[in-house]
């Protein structure tokens, strides 16, 4: 029997990431080739944004996607999130050259308070929320705190682009295929303080640190390169990453919904206090996914170098949280 359609809300639907994302969701790449979807798209209440959204919806129509069971375009979060089973919160101001992601904090915080409240009031109770808009971890925290009647674990932030960047850079260094790499971890904040940790990583079954055998490269080149990749893309394109960000969003939601078959992936999730990360901080950790749920990998040894790195990125998240404390009341 055909599956019933699920409702997928996407904010910032007429933006660059939206344009690289919606067509892939509608073609079944995110939730499966047998899963019909209704797209509920939110854009700013401005003539230009609404016109652009209309154009995107016309193009979606012109694709005649068999799985696209309906579309809603709106400027009202309560319409976009009504009964939504999935929400991809992309809409926010992106940074430009010379800015850090936390420079966007106050500007984007208000958006995530309003949207968290709307999710709280109208979304499906088991909604899966992915925050892409920067600063993604703290925006996810703000939305979670603004939605007290939804389970906290429903709120996640996107660290998958960082995870994929970490895989790719390691594949290039070792000359091995990306899919031979397992157990990559990117701890912490989606910011240059993130900590790509390859201590548990294997490449075609071999321990990555031994195979790479170049600790100086790992510490002085690899870690900063992964952390600063977003800025390098902005420098090169004059615009922030879009296709790779949309691809990571698809990966994140697909894995959460359909499972990872035991494979580790990185998700920004509310902390349960493990690894010395205070409760509720949205922090990148390794997880596996099965049956529509993620489960953090527990019991990993944290050595002195890792502790320092993990605390550094945690401190930045604490500062970001302090910055928005007054707004959260
Ligand atoms: N987490 C990550 O890995 C990652 C990667 C890339 C980009 N990003 C972030 O994603 C966000 C979007 O990037 P983009 O390149 O698509 O930007 P963009 O400017 O091209 O598009 C953003 C869209 O959001 C809309 N928008 C703004 N405020 C909104 C609101 N309150 N409600 C609904 N829509 C709203 C804008 O009208 C615009 O169309 C930025 O914050 C960017 O920094 C995150
Ligand atoms: O770096 C940015 O501002 C965009 C995005 O977060 C990225 O990592 O590419």
From TrEMBL:
Its EC number is 1.1.1.37. This is Malate dehydrogenase. Belongs to the LDH/MDH superfamily. MDH type 2 family. It holds the Pfam family Ldh_1_N. Residues 160-326 form the Lactate/malate dehydrogenase C-terminal domain. It comes from Denitratisoma oestradiolicum. The keyword Metal-binding does not apply. The active site is at 190 (proton acceptor). PANTHER family: MALATE DEHYDROGENASE. Keywords: NAD, Oxidoreductase, Tricarboxylic acid cycle. It catalyses: (S)-malate + NAD(+) = oxaloacetate + NADH + H(+). Residues 6-155 form the Lactate/malate dehydrogenase N-terminal domain. One of its GO terms (molecular function) is L-malate dehydrogenase (NAD+) activity. It is an enzyme of class 1 (oxidoreductase). CDD domains: MDH_chloroplast-like (cd01338). Substrate binds at residues 95, 101, 134, 165. One of its GO terms (biological process) is tricarboxylic acid cycle. InterPro entries: L-lactate/malate_DH (IPR001557), Lactate/malate_DH_C (IPR022383), Lactate/malate_DH_N (IPR001236), Lactate_DH/Glyco_Ohase_4_C (IPR015955), Malate_DH_type2 (IPR010945), NAD(P)-bd_dom_sf (IPR036291). Catalyzes the reversible oxidation of malate to oxaloacetate. NAD(+) binds at residues 12-18, 108, 115, 132-134.
